[in-house]
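Researcher: Next entry in the queue.
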Amino acid sequence: MIRRAFVIASLVGLGLLLLAVPAPAQEITVKMGSATSPTPFDSITPYMAREKGMFKAQGLEVQILDFRGDATVTKALVGGEVDVAVNLGATSAIVSASKGTRIRLHVVPQPITPYTLVARREAARTLKDLVEGRRKSIAVSGIGAISYHIPRVVLEKSGLDPDKATYVGVGSAADRFKSVIAGKVDATIVTASETVELDRYPQLIALAEIPKIVPEIAYTFGVAKQEYLDRNPETAYKLTRGMIEANRYIVTNKAGAVEAGAKIMRRPAEVIARIYDLIDKRLWGVNGDLDREHYLYTVDLLRRVGYLQTPLSYEEFFDRRFVDRVLRELGRM
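Model: Structure for this entry, 333 residues:
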């Protein structure tokens, strides 16, 4: 009887002990839409954060869904198909937010663009050639997207009339590059993932390196609907931290970034290494931040070309809670 009582007491005690041990924290699942498909190395930040465990370390299970272009991923975000959107063109995000979509910026993965303006040699050997003679076609991801505004700004800054060219919606940088190679269009802007292959296509020529001409315009934004950020501030902070840590890893660890990039993109490591070396390291937003002056420059540009009437203020558009918290913890680089 005594022995039986002892066994029962032991089992009860064990049960209480098990109850006292905290259960492992459950990962938070986030559906993240990416506006670039296939993914160029220039926009690899969220994939790097997933591959190298930055999201996992924050207790996040991030499911990345690929979309072709800004318009499709914005529609998915507004419609609730995804929780957040990344690799969304900066100009497209600003315009969408101004039209009442209530999407807000929470992190800037790429604060400058990685673009090079390329053309078919037979069509243009200088920027001036793009607006002279027969009317030239420039491939863009969509009318109003960042890939539409960048060549126009470059031409305008060079004293040329951007309206003397025709702009054709094609899709991602990879799709645009293919369209130029095939002779379907005369020119486009491409990322380093395509520029690295120029020596394979003697019919193409690089006309201008965009960051040297227009460093003010950011490349990609990480955005979410305001209500999502307000309902899930801790998750938004963790996503922001994961993205910033991924960019810091890329900048400070070439070997690791190249190895992961080759795996993610399914391209040879030596090609990824060449792409890595081509990229201006300012592309990687190690602070996830956006200068007020650069935002105002972009807003003014969009207003002048007629794509923006009533822009949101910097404070309205950029929900800085999450970037500021990460920078308090990690410091600026």
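Model: The chain has two domains: 28-112+217-330, 116-213.
Researcher: Noted, moving on.
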